[in-house]
């Protein structure tokens, strides 16, 4: 998996169990609402779950997710064929902090 972050970004980062709104740019903008889920709550593909804790609030990132960290051999018919590498543009819009 490939992505880049700015380690010097002073903005807060989400922690496991926090509720996050992640905008997967091509999907969320088409639906006109961000994708909201729990960090490490199993609601997103493993590739997104791995990169999200490394993102700071307001971060935009291009993520290349190999099939084994996306939808694998089964895919997500009819939208994602089997064994597809995903290239996603994402932005962390907000998250609820939980200590």
What can you see in these coordinates?
The protein has 99 residues and is α+β, with helices and mostly antiparallel strands. Helices cover 13% and strands 26% of the residues. It contains two helices and four strands. It has a four-stranded antiparallel β-sheet with strand order 2-1-4-3. The longest helix is centred in the N-terminal third of the chain and has 7 residues, at 25-31. It is globular, with a radius of gyration of 13 Å. The mean pLDDT is 76.
Entry keywords:
99 residues, alpha+beta, 4-stranded antiparallel β-sheet
**Percent helix:** 10-25%
> What is the typical, i.e. mean, pLDDT?
76
- Looking at the structure, what is the overall shape? globular
Question: What is the count of helical runs?
Answer: 2
Distance between the termini: 29 Å
**Largest sheet report:** 4 strands, antiparallel
Strand content: 25-35%
- Strand/helix succession: EHEHEE
> In terms of per-residue confidence, which ranges show pLDDT below 50 for 5 or more consecutive residues?
none
Strand order of the largest sheet: 2-1-4-3
Radius of gyration: 13 Å
Quaternary structure classification: single chain
Structural class call reads alpha+beta
Number of strands: 4
């Amino acid at each position: 998996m490939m992505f880049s972050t700015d380690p010097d970004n002073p903005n807060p980062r989400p922690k496991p169990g926090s509720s996050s709104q992640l905008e997967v740019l091509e999907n969320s903008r088409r639906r006109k609402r961000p994708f909201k889920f729990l960090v490490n709550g199993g609601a997103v593909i493993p590739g997104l779950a791995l990169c999200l804790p490394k993102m700071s609030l307001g971060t935009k990132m291009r993520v290349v997710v190999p099939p084994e960290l996306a939808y694998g051999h089964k895919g997500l018919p009819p939208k994602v064929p089997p064994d597809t590498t995903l290239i996603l543009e994402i932005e962390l819009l907000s998250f609820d902090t939980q200590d």
